[in-house]
Specification:
Length: 510
């Protein structure tokens, strides 16, 4: 048999079919080998782990190990665990009505044993899908042994006139109810040590015992744990004897390339909106969002032991698109096009996702978030444009003039006392015409961002990107208001009265 539901509905028919029940870890191993031979995608939706985490996880399954996934928040630990049922057979038979998924060919509960003794080969069986063979529990300090293993139910015992030592008086917990399946405990260090001790028998002897009564039920189960290293010191720890019984410890990590980060955000962020408009997202703006997380994971203002979850960039991207959508709805425009200025309204996606150290708390979450965005813009700008601060001396020794500064026309225009004002809700035509006032700006964006006039939306955002990049490299001054931004000459900003919205602390920061 292939292990799928069929006309087999009784124990006798199951025996006649020649069906063989494998232990759950052997079943995982068998299906892993099949998928490897067929070159199938093992963990769909998991990005950036192909050469690190996935091979270790495959090895652990092939070795029939219990596993702990250890990593900071937002590193896809739970998602990996929830994909493991895909390596189970699609359907398996159980004794009909069994609370603990009894194997019809080798029952372990009193209920199933008595049913088979009474009906023999006519014992009814049913088939359960692999999605029903997965159990998950978030470890919290209030979790009890009864939640995990089970307990004696005095009402059940009284109604059925059973002694407490009778198996029929047991109310099973989530672990035995996941028999012949995969059980996951998330955030293991949060589980109290005395509760962790209760897992010893399951890990070593593969059975459970209820309240010391002479009732022992062997289980067939694969156990997966997840843990955050931060929890080892902040909230609890994994007791050594339990850790020793976990066969494989697999370390997860954050995306190691900007491309992987962008792929994760594209996959997870909600970008398709119900409005009639089409979302146009320039790649360099995506890179700025991802670079914000890169900067956060290096910032001295952020607790690096806590980590910076991939959820930060997902939330930031959604807030960025939402602000562009709000503007498009307000102005009756068809295209939803995020702009650099929209990053001001996307800061709530950052501030709630990072844990600040003392110095960060002193600065304040909003200021730290703006600093991260500033560094991100500067980093992405360097990927596309020449360094505005570089003073090339090529040819100087031979008396040749230095190469022309590509930013000279722009800086000259601002140096003559000109400035531009951009507002949050500015319609596209006005936004574009304001940027077009700066000579050379359009040509610079087209040259280095490889943009075409046929795509005016990305081109306009690219022009604003150039101005912000020059500001982040101290070539232009920028004044941020609540719902707007202005750019002007740096020297003029120093020697003229402060413009509206001026923040002395922010100027010192930049």
């Amino acid at each position: 048999m292939s292990g799928t539901p069929s006309t087999v509905r009784t124990l006798g028919e199951l025996k006649a079919s020649g069906y063989r029940v494998l232990p759950v870890k052997d079943e995982l191993r068998k299906n892993m080998i099949r998928k490897l031979r067929n070159r199938e995608v093992l963990f769909p939706g998991i990005i950036g782990f192909d050469e690190t985490v996935v091979p270790q996880l495959v090895n652990a399954i092939l070795a029939r190990h219990d596993i702990i996934l250890l990593g900071l928040r937002g590193q896809a630990k739970t998602r990996l665990a929830r994909l493991l049922p895909n390596f189970l057979d699609e359907y398996v038979p159980i004794v009909a009505g069994s609370e603990i998924n009894d194997n019809p060919l080798a029952p372990v509960s009193r209920y199933a044993s008595e049913l088979i003794r009474e009906h023999g080969d006519a014992t009814p069986i049913e088939w359960i899908h692999h999605s029903e063979r997965y159990g998950e529990k978030l470890a919290t300090p209030d979790v009890t042994i009864a939640d995990l293993i089970g307990d004696i139910d005095p009402i059940k015992a009284a109604n059925q006139r059973l002694t407490y030592s009778h198996e029929g008086a047991i109310h099973f917990g989530i672990v035995p109810r996941t028999n012949r399946g995969i059980f996951v405990i998330n955030e293991l260090p949060d589980l109290q040590p005395r509760i962790q001790v209760g897992l010893f028998n399951i890990m070593q002897e593969k059975d459970i015992q209820i309240r010391g009564f002479n009732v022992r039920i062997p289980l067939d189960i694969a156990i997966i744990f997840t843990a955050n290293p931060e929890d080892y010191t902040n909230r609890g720890s994994i007791i050594t004897p339990l850790k020793d019984r976990i066969d494989s410890q697999i370390l997860t990590h954050y995306p190691r390339t900007l491309a992987d980060s962008m792929a994760i955000t594209r996959q997870e962020a909600w970008r398709a909106r119900e409005t009639d408009g089409t979302v146009i997202m320039p790649q360099y703006l995506e890179e700025i969002v991802e670079m914000t997380a890169v900067q956060a994971r290096q910032s001295e203002f952020i607790d690096q032991q806590s980590g910076v979850s991939a959820r930060m960039t997902i939330a930031t991207m959604e807030a960025l698109i939402s602000n562009a959508e709000r503007r498009a709805i307000y102005n009756g425009e068809d295209a939803v096009v995020p702009r650099i200025i929209d990053m001001q309204q996307a800061l709530p996606g950052i501030t709630g996702k990072v844990e600040l150290v003392f110095e960060g708390e002193q600065e304040g979450p909003a200021k730290v978030a703006r600093l991260l965005v500033s560094k991100a813009v500067r980093g992405v700008f360097a990927m596309y444009f020449p360094n505005p601060l570089e003073r090339s001396r090529r040819g100087a020794e031979k008396g040749a003039p230095p190469p022309a500064d590509p930013y000279a026309p722009i800086l000259k225009w601002f140096g003559e006392g000109n400035s531009i004002e951009l507002e949050d809700m500015m319609p596209f035509e006005i936004y574009c015409s304001e940027l077009e006032r700066v000579p050379g700006l359009r040509e610079l964006a087209m040259t280095y961002l490889k943009l075409s006039p046929a795509n005016p939306y990305e081109l306009a955002t690219g022009m604003e990107f150039v101005l912000d990049g020059l500001h982040q490299n101290s070539r232009l001054a920028k004044d941020e208001q609540i719902a707007g931004t202005s750019y002007r000459d740096m020297l003029g900003a120093i020697f003229t009265p402060k413009g509206r919205g001026y923040d002395e602390d922010e100027e010192e920061e930049y």
